[in-house]
C-alpha cells in the first residue's frame, strides 16, 4: 500500500501527538547515528519535548558539549556567561586605555600652556614650538576669514539700505508727480482769475478835459 502524504500542521489530538513525537524522534536519532557511521561525520542532535524533556545524541564518545564547543568556536557564538565575562574584561581594558590616553592628553595640554617643561628635552620643546607656530597660523587664517565675512555682511546690509532708500525716494517722487497731475482744473482757473484781477486793479490817474498847456492859454486870453 502507498502511504498518503502527511499534512504539515500541528496534531490537535494530544495522544496522537505524543505517539508521533516518539516515533519521529527515534527515527531522527537513528538517521543521525547512521549519518555519523556511514560518513564519519560528527553529528549532534538536541530535542526538547513539549513538556521540556531533553533528548540528545552525540556521535562522539564524549558528551555533546564537545560538539557544542566546536560549534561555538566556528560560529563565534558563546554562552551568556562567557559573553558576560568577555564583555566585562573588554570594558576594563577599554577603561584603562582611556584613562591612560586622558592622562597623556592632560600632560600635553599642560606643557602647551607652559607648565611641566622641566622634564622636556630640546627636541620636545622644538616640536611644541612648531606645533604652536602652526596653530597660530591656522588661528590667524581663520580670524582673517571671519573678518572678511563680517565685512561682506556689513557691505551687503549697507547696499540693501541704499537700495531701500532709493526705492522710497522714487515712490515719493511718483506720488508727488501724480498729485500735481491730478490737481483740479477749476482750482487752477481760480488761481488764473485771481491773478488777472490783481493785474487790473492797478491805480491810474485819469483826467478828462483839455491838456494843461491849452488850459493855460485860454486863461491868458480871458
Strand percentage lies at under 5%
Largest sheet: 2 strands, antiparallel
Characterize the overall form: elongated
As a whole number of angstroms, the C-alpha radius of gyration is 58 Å
| Strand arrangement, major sheet | 1-2
So how many helices?
A: 6
* Sequence stretches where pLDDT stays below 50 over 5 or more residues: none
Q: Give the % helix.
A: over 70%
* First-residue to last-residue Cα separation: 187 Å
| Pattern of helices and strands | HEEHHHHH
List keywords for this structure.
222 residues, 6 helices, mainly alpha
Compact description:
This protein is mainly alpha-helical. 70% of the residues lie in helices and 5% in strands.
Question: Helices and strands in order, then pairings?
Answer:
Elements: H1 14-39, E1 44-48, E2 54-58, H2 65-75, H3 80-112, H4 122-181, H5 185-200, H6 212-221
Antiparallel strand pairs: 1-2
